[in-house]
Specification:
The chain is mainly alpha-helical. Helix content is about 70%, strand content about 5%.
């Protein structure tokens, strides 16, 4: 009975994301870094699939997925093509297939981030605007540790070298309305999966950042 209780859909999902993130981190630091970096789209797709698998299905949930993907892609296309919203930057090859010079995985990543930060905010707070603000803050916190690592992994590179305030303001500008819509829709997930995925992403980038700084890259 105990074994059956442990082998739940969510527990298996959590084990898989830990396996892929930790393996990727170890591989990048100690093994064939380029091979593991090329596997980033697979990791993102797995995380996204497991996130949806553990989310309560509804028309509102499907609408949110499409909305987050489309909004994220549109914002990124405007950024890459015209320098709007986030500043002037370009994407490398590590994130895979592109549409108008923006990897499709970036649209998937916008979905992942809105959902996991939204679920975390949902757990701690009750009021709509407070939840949206916390979700946006959690996204910006993650972006702060992603930005210095992204050029090294060939994810994206800003023309000025480092992301400016413009980028973070743009993130908040796009994320906050999506967070409001997410919480208005009242999509539900029970269990700790969003916490694990957020913590894993944060640890992944902060450990790589510390490693890069120690090497003076």
């Amino acid at each position: 009975m105990l074994q059956r209780n442990l082998l739940t859909k969510q527990n298996i999902s959590i084990a898989l994301i830990w396996l892929f993130h930790v393996s990727g981190l170890i591989g990048i630091i100690y093994s064939n870094a380029s091979w593991f970096i090329k596997g980033t789209p697979v990791n993102l797709l797995l995380s996204f699939s497991l996130l949806l698998l553990n989310t309560e299905w509804s028309k509102k949930m499907l609408f949110l997925v499409v909305l987050c993907f489309a909004t994220g892609m549109l914002a990124e296309i405007l950024g890459v093509q015209y320098g709007f919203i986030f500043g002037e930057y370009s994407y490398g090859k590590a994130l895979g297939i592109k549409f108008m010079n923006v990897p499709l995985m970036i649209g998937i990543n916008w979905c992942i981030l809105i959902f996991i930060t939204g679920f975390i905010a949902q757990f701690f707070l009750n009021k709509l605007w407070s939840r949206a603000l916390l979700g946006t803050a959690l996204m910006l916190t993650l972006d702060l540790v992603m930005e210095p690592v992204a050029p090294v992994l060939d994810f994206w590179t800003f023309t000025t070298g480092l992301a400016s305030f413009h980028n973070y303001f743009g993130w908040a500008l796009v994320a906050f309305p999506l967070q409001l819509i997410f919480h208005k829709a009242k999509v539900k997930m029970e269990g700790p999966f969003p916490f694990h995925l957020y913590i894993l992403q944060f640890l992944f980038f902060i450990i790589l950042l510390l490693k890069i700084n120690s090497l003076g890259i």
